[in-house]
Each structure stands twice: as C-alpha cells, then as structure tokens.
Amino acid sequence: MKLKLKIWRQPNNESKGKMINYDIDNVSPDMSFLEMMDMLNENLINKGEDPVAFDHDCREGICGMCSMFINGEPHGPDRLITTCQLHMRKFKDGDTIIIEPFRANAFPVIKDLVVDRSSFDRIQQAGGFISINTSGNTQDANTIPVDKYDADKAFDAATCIGCGACVASCKNASAMLFVSAKVSQFSLLPQGKVEARDRVLNMVNQMDEEGFGNCTNTGACEVECPKGISLENIARMNREYLWSSIKG
Questions:
Q1: What sign has the CA pseudo-torsion 122, 125, 127, 129?
Q2: Most exposed among 9, 60, 128, 183, judged by the fewest C-beta atoms under 10 Å?
Q3: Residue 106: CB partners within 8 Å, gap ≥ 6?
Q4: Mean pLDDT per 10-residue section of the chain, whose length is 248 residues
C-alpha cells in the first residue's frame, strides 16, 4: 500500500508544533501500525532527517505506552486494542492517516507523539496501593472469602493499563475512568477495605490537582478504552467518594 501520513511534529514542550506530510509505500497489510512507523523512521534516518518520536515498549497490548491519536481516535479505528495491535489492513491503499499525540493539559507533549503521563503515576501514588503491614502473622490470601461477583469485577477493573485513551477521547480530558478503575480494583476486595476511605479521597483530590477535567457522562472513554473498562466503575467511585466525604 501507498499511504500519506500527516504527523504532528514538535521538537519539545516549549516549541510550537505543526503537522508534517510524509509519503510511504510498500506497506504490507499484515504490518502493525508501529511497524509502519518503524519503516517511516528508517526512511527518515536514511535521509538524514529526525525520526518521529513515539512511545512503545512491549508491543503486546499490555503496557499502554503506544498511545497515538489516529484519525481522530485514540489507538485508531478499531476496538479493544492498543496502537501496537492495530494492523495496516484497517486502512486502504491511498489513504491519508492523521497521527497526533494524546492531547490534554495534564499530558504535556515531550516530543512529537510522546506525552508526559506521569500525572497518572502521581494519582496512583496518592492511594492506589495497599499498605497493610504483612510482616509476622500473615493470613493466606486464599483463606479470605471473596464473592465471585466481586472478584470478577475487581479483576475487570485491574485490567486498566493506564494508557490514557480515556483522557484523550473525553471532551473534558477527564481521568475519571482511569481513577475509578484503580479505586474499584481495591474497594471490591476485603484487602482494600481498610484504607478505602482515604484512598478514594486522596486519589480524586490528586486527579483534580493534576488538572484533569470533570466527567459529564458522555461515555467516549468506555468506547475507546482498549480494555473495555466499564462506566460502572465511575458510579462506584462516586458512591465511595460521597460516603467517604460524609464520614470524614
């Protein structure tokens, strides 16, 4: 296939960026999107030009680093996949593909398609953990009864990979789906009950401090999430937050 790429290029956070056009051919439909980007960068390097900076790591759909806004959609025109799992068969010969970074005030651009998502790290550090002292007399986790329904819901929430597609797809750049998944992951299990009140308050407060927008129940986050995280988690987090606020 022969394709025309319109890619956002931005040298650093202080510089203004702009869209640059690139032509690429001999693209196999069996290539992944990142392999196509690798081919483009190889061509640019051979010409002595600066390659396009983009995030990637495992390329197996489990790390969430390969965050690109492709033709107006986080991770591109497919569902329940990350960019690294998107294949070029989703495009046609002669197509124009627009590639941008995830855009949010809380995700400042580092270079080209790479954004700083350390705000997610700080939200998790605010409470996305269990700090119960497990030294000495510890109870085997397998002896703690957990309802099958709760266990399944907690597992579903835990599949969130923190890629930021929810933020990128939201008109308000809200991180509610991400935060609610991390809150639900623990609030549904007995091990997480001990710190449940502080956890939800601290994580929501940190989310607000990072500058993410509010949720207005549009639902784009669930649609674009590569792991299919449910909006039910946002409702659960809102209940937890209200209860914790009242209890003080």
A1: positive
A2: 60
A3: 119, 167, 173, 175, 210, 211, 212
A4: 98 96 98 98 98 96 95 97 97 98 97 98 94 69 85 96 97 98 94 92 97 96 97 96 89
Indicate which CATH number applies to the domain containing 157.
Answer: 1.10.1060.10
Q: How far is CA 235 from the centre of its chain?
A: 19
Token pair recorded at residue 36: 């196509």
Structure tokens at 149: 């329904």
Query: Contact 128/182 with Cβ under 8 angstroms?
Result: yes
Spatial strand order of the sheet with 96-100 comes to 18-24, 3-9, 96-100, 69-70, 73-74
The pTM (predicted TM-score) of the whole model is 0.93
What's the CATH code of the domain at 75? Answer: 3.10.20.30
pLDDT at 125: 96
